[in-house]
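Expect sequence, tokenised fold; for instance:
***
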Amino acid sequence: MAIAFVAVSCGSSGNATPTRALATVTRTTASPTRVAAASPTPSPSAAAASLRYVAIGASDTVGVGSADPRTGSWPARVAARLPAGTDYVNLGVSGSLSAQAAREQLPRALQLRPELVTVWLAVNDMNANLTPADYTAALRSVVAPLIEQTDARLFIGNVPDLRAVPAYAGADQAALGARVTAYNLAIAAVAQPFGKRAVVVDLFTGSAALTSSLTVAADGFHPSDAGYALIAERFANAIAASGIALR
């Protein structure tokens, strides 16, 4: 499962457990989706611009909290801005932890030979009280094979400041903040050895807008459509800054 925003860092190991359990969501895998080409018979230049985009994650990647997850999830919004003819496959599974994603989503992602991959996995690991060290190892088991076995560029979301998210209202706020910081440091540490192939998408800086009453769904945990639009914008900006042209 995933929260309105997910950021990760490797810092203190204080385990903040929200007094309110995260919303339970039926494990769901989004159906593969192709972004329609600009024309039935793309020109050679259009074909050259196309790529395959694979999204790996949990319920926020699936789009839980959106009025129409198939089109309203943040990966779907990102895919809609990629070059015409792009293949978009959303492998997200609600409730997934990083280690589960390595077992359940990674093999399919490797099969698809993507050029672009987004990864957003952290909050479920936090809620399961994984230590930052264990989380680091689990996230690396997703990221490293994608770098080593494909030519994909990876964009890895970190954790926003969850202290304003309603689901965490009863949590020890200092401990929660420290844990978010620790997970975000872990995410940075996983990405760092791979240079430009693995980019951390900063969802923490200025994350107040991402965790406001307007951007969190009615369940108090997942993003709303407004929240997904903001998340998509952050990922899209990072993708564009890497040199991939967007529409």
Notes: The radius of gyration is 17 Å. Residues 1-49 have pLDDT under 50 and may be disordered. The chain has one domain: 48-241. Residues 48-241 form a domain with the Rossmann fold fold (CATH 3.40.50.1110).
